Amino acid sequence: MPCRKTFNALSGTPLAHLHHKERWLAYADCLLNSFSVRKAASQVSIHRNTSFRWRHRFLALAKTDRPRCLHGITEADDMYLLESQKGSRHMTRPARQRGGRASQRGISNEQVCVLVARDRTGQTIDFVVGLGQLTKATLHACLPPVIDRDILLVSDGHPAYPVFAREIGIEHAAVNLRAGIRVRGTVHVQNVNAYHSRLRGWLRAFHGVATRYLPNYLGWRWILDAKRILSPESLLRATVGTFPHLMVT
């Protein structure tokens, strides 16, 4: 018997059931220009709630365009962002005013750890690993599937990195930033720290990003930083999982 259901090319994709198809390219251009939700809504003539929904629909698959493996000298470092329940209807703590600050000094469970690994060719992979300090278990959960076994892993003086490297059998070198040692020949973490700086500066324009949407923003930043998607048409194709650099021509 027929199932009495209809399908089209967008069924099962993030664009399924979205209206105003004639405005999608213009909205993709807004994403490539890092417009805010309200500015994109004004530019494309849609409601701000629609703009927010489209942003995360467009990024759902596009954010997955990441390198499969890092090679050679690979820098790894962790950065911390204040945990945010922005937009949540069921908050687990009192709301902060205008983003607010952590109530505790230093790294605590009020901050989200983002692990970033970047090789010297610029290939970058990041992970939202949860609240609080980076641990050896976190490194074991994230890095082994995405690094070659003949890499040189370079980090700062965090104690989790050398233990992790020894346990999986890869080379490791560290720079002691606290002692003012930032570079030892080819051993440094300046590339990954520069990426952190660009990421923080870019996120600042959004006046706080909800932690549950943070992976989407990290993927969005990678799209812009790597320059792998340069046109609204390419971004629209990536939205349904067709990435331009993987297409056969």
Structure overview:
With 249 residues, the protein is α/β, with parallel strands linked by helices. The protein has two domains: 21-65 and 228-246; 73-85 and 105-210, Ribonuclease H-like superfamily/Ribonuclease H (Nucleotidyltransferase, domain 5). Helix content is 34%, strand content 14%. It is built from eight helices and five strands, in the order H-H-H-E-E-E-H-E-H-E-H-H-H. It has a five-stranded mixed β-sheet, with helices on both faces. Helix 5 links the parallel strand 4 and strand 5 (171-174). Helix 1 (24-32) runs antiparallel to helix 2 (37-44) and helix 1 packs across helix 8. The chain is globular, with a radius of gyration of 20 Å. It starts with 23 loop residues before the first helix and ends in a 10-residue tail after the last helix. The model has no long low-confidence stretch (mean pLDDT 83).
